[in-house]
Design goal:
Elements lengths: L1 H9 L2 E5 L6 E5 L2 E4 L7 E9 L9 E7 L14 E6 L16 E9 L5 H6 L4 E3 L3 E3 L22 E4 L4 H20 L1
Parallel strand pairs: 2-10
Antiparallel strand pairs: 1-6, 2-3, 4-5, 4-7, 7-8, 7-9
């Protein structure tokens, strides 16, 4: 009985919600706007890994949340609210994350119609990923840290785009231009 009680106190919690300093934007041919759409149009996932992890592919998905109904006029555009996530999270995972241990994390977003983040990337549906963040989950007796914000370790907003990232397109364009220049010289 004592072992069960002590292990429950070791579980960690983080807040999986953004705010006005960390909006999620949708980049389309019409420009960049905050993500809007009916509830469930986009999904967001919290991926955690050990503190030295720097790739989302080496992290585990520990929680997902769908987008709220986010019409621009209601002020909810670009906002997600996954609430408080307690270890071990709300999806099947094997990461036994605990309080008072630092973890690396990413937040990814994708079109819910794609099914998963990986599938959204593969099918070039709308998808995006945050910068790398670091968080130390807390127990319910201490302030529970938010993964979004402007403090050290927190992440700001990020963009969802369809197809290759704009930087990838630019690099590809430069490479094609270089090939044309070298071809003309011969």
């Amino acid at each position: 009985m004592i072992a069960g009680t002590s292990s429950s106190f070791a579980q960690g919690a983080v807040i999986f919600a953004n705010n006005s300093s960390s909006y999620i934007n949708l980049v389309s041919s019409g420009g960049t706007n905050r993500v809007t759409g009916s509830a469930g149009t986009y999904d967001y996932g919290l991926f955690l890994g050990s503190a030295g992890t720097t790739s989302i592919d080496s992290m585990q998905l520990v929680d997902t949340t769908g987008s709220p109904n986010a019409p621009t006029v209601a002020g909810f555009a670009g906002i997600l609210s996954g609430g408080t996530v307690n270890s071990p999270g709300n999806v099947i995972n094997t990461l036994g994350w605990t309080a008072n241990v630092q973890y690396a994390f990413f937040v990814a977003g994708w079109a819910a119609s794609a099914g998963s983040y990986d599938n959204a990337v593969t099918t070039q549906a709308y998808n995006g990923i945050s910068t790398l963040g670091f968080i130390t989950p807390a127990t319910g007796t201490t302030p529970i840290p938010n993964i979004f914000g402007t403090a050290a370790g927190q992440i700001g907003g990020f963009n969802l785009t369809a197809g290759p990232e704009p930087a990838t397109i630019a690099i590809g364009g430069l490479g094609a231009a270089a090939l044309l220049l070298f071809r003309r010289r011969k």
